[in-house]
Amino acid sequence: MPTDRIAIVGAGMAGLTAALAFARKGIACDIYEQAPALTEVGAGLQISPNASRILDALGVLEKIETVWTEPERINLLSGTSLRAISHVPAGSFARARWGAPYGVLHRSTLQNALLEAVLAQPLCNLKLATRLSPDDMPDLIGAGKPYKLVVGADGVWSQMRHRVSGGPEPEFSGNVAWRFTVPAAEAPAWLTPDAVSAFLGPSAHLVSYPLKDAGGFNVVAIASGISPGETWEAKSTQAQRQMLLDQFRSWNRQIVSVLERAPAPTFWPLYQMIPGRWQNGRDTVLIGDAAHAMMPFAAQGAAMAIEDAFALAAHVAGAASIAEALDTFEAERLPRIARARARGKFNRFAYHARGPVRLGRDLVLSLRPPQSLAADLDWLYGYRSRD
Q1: Cα separations (Å) of 169 from 34, 151, 178, 211?
Q2: What's this model's pTM, rounded to 2 decimal places?
Q3: Where is the FAD-binding domain (predicted)?
């Protein structure tokens, strides 16, 4: 083990998971978070088997399993007719095929579970209301100084990225996500309580799934939009809401009605990273969105951050030097992230297809057995990170 203590910048999902993963390897860490308290923004979250098996190894899964929902299937449906196109089996099938569960829950539920585990871990020290900038690093990293490694887990607008020459840069995707919840008592019948449902339509799509821990349904509508700048979320204006409704005007009226009645949806500009280096070869590495923020079309943003954190701890614990650990970590993770990104890009094309392409998509999907669609995800959901 080449280091006894590391600094983690950012106490989001990536940072907290990294802290637990390092502690599991006997490595102490200080987690620096500029916010005075951890308040998770957003709404629902899908945790696929490649991530849930890591949460299990970190002792977190058992806690969230008591309040999440394991959907029986992932439905693909028409956004204009509500007709079922195809589905991927989940539930007990996911546990049997991929060796771990597929669950949905509120983001805050997972963050709170990670936070409780970090606070209970003697090797983890959380420092809230403490901002670290690249200018602070020369006094903290290096021979005879507190840390030999800093982990940038500070998201899309990462400051630690400036310590990595040729690092990735954020780029607005041209899409925005509108997120809101529908109380169970007000939910229409097409919001299925035992499934993740993806409604596909021209130039847009909508995903819904139950949130048992929030007492309703998570709804995310993704369509073209304008970025408000550096923010993780923004309150939508009336003009922005009208822009959303205009893009869904040809959809089924039942869906449009729910969008019209949505109580104060949050507005998330979707950024992705222009690829670049994740580490500087000496003492700084980026993980999660700071390294490779991606579009949500494969629902893998959180899962990839969790995988990064677990793999990085394993590489650092097993390497002869920090430089070696960073090189082998990046070499292992780059192809995995590229493949996940490519899957999301394909899904974006398929989900938002128009005209004859949409008709062909529906025909091809309807002819494939559910088990065949599941087999396409073996590389993704069946993945086992280095331990």
Answers
A1: 22, 17, 24, 33
A2: 0.95
A3: 6-340
